[in-house]
Amino acid sequence: MSDEVRFPSSLGPDLAGVLDVPEESARGWGVLVHGFTLGKDSPAAFRIARGLAAQGIGMLRFDCLGLGESEGEWGDGSFTVKVDDTVRAAEFLAERGTPPTLLIGHSWGGAAAIVAAQRIPSVKAVVTIGAPAEPAEVERHYDSVVDRVMAEGTAPWLVGGREMTLKRDFVQDVRGAELIARVHTLDRPLLVMHSPTDATVSIDNASEIFRAAVHPRSFIALEGSDHLLTADGQAERAARIISAWAEQYL
Q1: CA end-to-end distance (rounded Å), the chain
Q2: CB of 203 within 8 A of CB of 139?
Q3: How many Cβ atoms sit within 10 Å of the Cβ of residue 27?
Q4: Sign of the C-alpha dihedral, residues 4, 82, 86, 216?
Q5: Comparing C-alpha atoms, which of 225, 214, 218 is closest to residue 242?
Q6: How many CB atoms lie within 10 A of CB 84?
Q7: How many other C-beta atoms can be found within 10 angstroms of the C-beta atom of residue 116?
Q8: Which of 26, 133, 186, 235 has the largest count of CB atoms under 10 Å?
Q9: Do residues 191 and 245 lie in contact, with contact meaning Cβ atoms separated by under 8 Å?
Q10: DSSP symbol at 196
Q11: Cα–Cα dist 132/186, whole Å
């Protein structure tokens, strides 16, 4: 069962979310953070959240600022805003009496999940899937317009047929974000999941995150998967692994 919800972002505009609710009583709750310009209905987010709900773990997935059904402008966001809005999502769950114990991030969302977890007292375990070791890795996606952005303040950027506005503050915030030091101070169990054949974010990123983490830490190779987990059964497999790993922390 899925319920549509809305809650205010850290900047004010409402964010659109979906609660994937278990058929029976939930054995725990979690938040799933999507990738860079993806959304709550991207294959990885949708299928993993649904798979976890089927395993008895209720999940909240949401569209970040200016994406999907959320209000606001994407260009007003940043890595810091993505972290802040992940905290807001956790607060929304807590306010309805279901505080999250599990935080899952896919791709860029994995980096945000590591940083956000340290501000969410109820979170007991963190999972990253195909996460970059440094948030600034995403700059290669918009490097063709970044010089213009830095010179003029804004520039249009085409992503998958959509035109977004990239802003100087966004670029500067991403360049200043640090992750590895935050991994070392996470102070929560961490499961790092990554495909050895990921052509978007190389497996070297997973190695760097894993080395920086302290125990308890775990690594699972998502063999046969692509970065977006679109291959048949891969997202569902990831959900089953997460469910089993997280059992003792729920």
Answers
A1: 20
A2: no
A3: 15
A4: positive
A5: 218
A6: 20
A7: 26
A8: 235
A9: yes
A10: T
A11: 16
Q: List the domains of the chain with CATH numbers.
A: 2-136+178-249 (3.40.50.1820)
Question: At a CB cut-off of 8 Å and minimum separation 6, what does 121 contact?
Answer: none
Report the Cα 144 to chain-centroid distance in Å. 25
CA 107 – CA 122 distance, rounded (Å): 23
Give the integer Cα–Cα distance in Å for 70 and 34.
13
Query: pLDDT for 37-87, tens place per residue?
Result: 999 999 999 999 999 999 999 999 999 999 999 999 998 999 999 999 999
Question: Quick one: tokens of 226?
Answer: 């692509």
Which parts of the chain have pLDDT scores under 50? none
Q: Which residues of 166-184 are buried (b: 16+ CB within 10 A; e: fewer)?
A: bbbbbbebbeebebeebbe
Q: Which residue stretches of the chain are H helix?
A: 43-54, 79-95, 108-117, 146-152, 168-176, 180-184, 203-212, 234-246
Model pTM? 0.95
Whole-angstrom CA distances from 188 to 75, 83, 91, 133 are 32, 17, 19, 18
Burial category of 223 from C-beta neighbours within 10 Å (exposed 0-12, middle 13-18, buried 19 and up): exposed
Tokens of 115: 């940083």
Q: How far is CA 69 from CA 12, 64, 66, 94, in A?
A: 15, 9, 8, 22
Q: Is the CB of residue 164 less than 8 Å from the CB of residue 145?
A: no
**Under 8 Å between Cβ of 87 and 67:** no
